[in-house]
Amino acid sequence: MSFDVPADRRYLESHEWTTTDDETVRVGITDFAQDELGDVVFVELPAEDDEVTKDAEFGVVESIKAVSDLLSPVSGTVVAVNEALFDAPELVNEDPYGEGWMIEVEPNSDGELDELLSADEYRESIE
Amino acid sequence: MGLRKPPLRATHADRDASFTEFGGWEMPVEFDSIRTEHAAVRESAGIFDVSHMGEIVVSGPDATALMGRLTTNDVTELDPGDTQYACITDEDGIILDDTMVFGLPDEDGQPRYLFIPNAGHDAEMYARWTEYRDEWGLDATVRDATEEWAMLALQGPDAPELASEATDGATTDIDRFKAAFCDVAGVRAFASRTGYTGEDGFEFLVPWDEVETVWSAFDCQPCGLGARDTLRLEMGFLLSGQDFDPDDEPRTPYEAGVGWTVDLDTEFVGRDALEAVEREGVDERFRGVVLQQRGVPRHGYEVVDADGDHLGHLTSGTMSPTLGEPIGLGYLSDQAPPGTRVRVIVRGEPKQANVVTPPFIDT
Fold first, then answer.
1. Which of A71, B111, B114, B352 has a CA that sits 20 to 30 A from residue B194's CA?
2. What pLDDT does residue A2 have?
3. Does A21 score more than 80 pLDDT?
4. Which residues of chain A have a CB within 8 Å of the CB of B347?
5. In chain A, which residues have their Cβ closer than 8 Å to the Cβ of B29?
6. Does pTM top 0.90 for this prediction?
7. Is B298 in CB contact (< 8 Å) with chain A?
8. Sorting pLDDT into bands at 50, 70 and 90, what band is A1?
């Protein structure tokens, strides 16, 4: 099975992605991660203005069969939360890089993104 | 130690199943999605490979005595073709395993039984049966046939019709909770109108080497252990090793809500302890909870009252695919009977929940 790994994102080995192009970055979980989890039924996310820390837990995603911590790819301040997931957690399965996004973060510094995996490196890590 | 593999391991892998370890076996947990598989069983039909379940055959002049003294129910009620749910308890009345007992056709005029220990319990139960047989000097043959027979479960409202088509109508003569030998797609099988989903259907015991023929004879949704778990959870059926376990969750049948399997008029290991429990009553009972707030109840979560005082804990939980509501099973104090509002502690957060009596759904 082959999984979608968009080239315009950066990745954590723990299967979270982040965008790279704006003042704020958007964070979610990968196609591989949603497939491993199966039917997502619950997402617990921080509130706006909460601080998140790189590689630390910022929330939880639960499927019918599993509970998984969400790790933040960057340190910074949460500026938006995808509240649509509270009523429709299945968006994480249906569109993990789009409608299934989780939070937007204003990073404390730019440098952290460079430490993340590129799409090619992430693809290798899941093969 | 390597994992035991069901005979259809490669067939499931070709069908892109994902696998999990369960009771020492490598079993398919998901073929498509738990939600899809669950819905198929509730609405039409699904087929499960449950070859991890044990099979132990007990026969001989004292087979009835041996079965009766090691299970809580009254085995003398079982005629060939009957099935009976029972617990296997220790001297203290603690459930070691729960099992289905089948009356098989007599062999050379001697009674014969088959019982189904849960995954990974077959060797332990074989040892238990042979040790007690020898201690009591009973004349009975005990055989662990777990790796001679594969087991498939065809479940759902359409299951009877599918079974009938595959057996030239032979299964239409098998009533609920009855069993008989019949040919399934030309393969001699033991068909039992039982299951673990709350739906109508059959469980087929099939010779290990011929199971592929039977598996492929049914044109319906293949289902993994993930859907098997959500389906049994909606019914409030116990899962051995999780909802009871002699080490981690020691419970009597009365606590576990299966006191009806205990016949105190029979002699069996654990009987005297259970008579005392029955007389004195229990402090905690197996209940259901339905969360009223967002979250998913899981094994091990604590249940408290409005003041935060301990009422019990959960042993199983999930998001019910049928209801779309978070449901849990566990042991609660008698101070929290059905109808009580309680709190389930989810990662430190108390979530409101109602205590109910399972099943959670009508089937």
1. B111
2. 84
3. no
4. 44, 60
5. 65
6. yes
7. yes
8. low
The structural domains of chain B, with segments of one domain joined by +, span 9-52+148-235, 56-144, 283-356
- Rounded to whole angstroms, the Cα distance separating B53 from B317 reads 22
Residue extents of the structural domains in chain A: 9-119
Asked if the Cβ–Cβ distance from A67 to B16 is below 8 Å, we say no
Rounded to an integer, what distance in angstroms lies between the CA atom of residue A98 and that of residue A23?
18
pLDDT tens digits, B125-183: 999 999 999 999 999 999 999 999 999 999 999 999 999 999 999 999 999 999 999 99
Q: How far apart are CA B352 and CA B345, in angstroms?
A: 9
Q: Which residues of A touch B34 (CB under 8 A)?
A: 38-39, 63-65
**Residue B260 token pair:** 């009806």
The verdict on domain B56-144 having CATH code 3.30.70.1400 is yes
Task: Say which CATH superfamily domain B9-52+148-235 falls into.
Answer: Probable tRNA modification gtpase trme; domain 1 (3.30.1360.120)
- The architecture CATH gives domain B283-356: Beta Barrel (2.40)
Q: DSSP class of residue B34?
A: H
Out of A44, A60, A65, the one facing B226 most closely (by C-beta) is A65
- Interchain CB contact of B195 with A (< 8 Å): no
- B226 interaction partners in chain A (CB closer than 8 Å): 38, 64-65
Question: What fold characterizes domain A9-119?
Answer: OB fold (Dihydrolipoamide Acetyltransferase, E2P) (2.40.50)
Q: In this structure, are residues B56 and B97 in contact, taking their beta carbons and an 8 Å threshold?
A: no
Mutate to test the interface with B, among A63, A64, A93 (most CBs of B within 10 A): A64
Q: Dihedral angle at the C-alpha atoms of A119, A120, A121, A124, nearest 10 degrees?
A: 120
Question: What is the C-alpha to C-alpha distance for residues B329 and B294, in angstroms, rounded to an integer?
Answer: 17
Cβ of A42 within 8 Å of Cβ of B34? The answer is no
